[in-house]
């Protein structure tokens, strides 16, 4: 997104992305797409695509989707529902200290 904090994250991580969200659809709303995301101002929330779409090109510089295939069994969907109930509404906290606390893997010597 187009904020100073997002720019710092992209710079430090050497990545063009600064945010990730899970894209979901629900039977109750067949014509709507939802984003499960964590943001500094809203915490963990479930947002409709229709509320994000007006900000494309201004606040949201780019949106990229990646489809992940997974078995949508009753058990996995139940687990997803439990997870969402646990996290939606939680506050989001992230500090620069956490960003700089990067873990690196040791490179074996030959």
What does the model show?
- The chain has four helices and three strands; from the N terminus they run αβββααα.
- By secondary structure, it is α+β, with helices and mostly antiparallel strands.
- Strands 1-2-3 form a three-stranded antiparallel β-sheet.
- The radius of gyration is 17 Å and the shape is globular.
- The mean pLDDT is 79.
Write the layout of secondary structure elements.
Blueprint lengths: L3 H10 L8 E5 L2 E11 L3 E6 H4 L21 H14 L8 H5 L10
Antiparallel strand pairs: 1-2, 2-3
In short, what is this structure?
With 110 residues, this protein is an alpha+beta fold. The chain is built from four helices and three strands; from the N terminus they run H-E-E-E-H-H-H.
In round numbers, the mean pLDDT is: 79
- Helix fraction, binned, reads 25-40%
Order of helices and strands: HEEEHHH
How many E strands? 3
Can you count the helices? 4
Low-confidence stretches: none
Give the tags.
110 residues, globular, three-stranded antiparallel beta sheet, alpha+beta, single chain
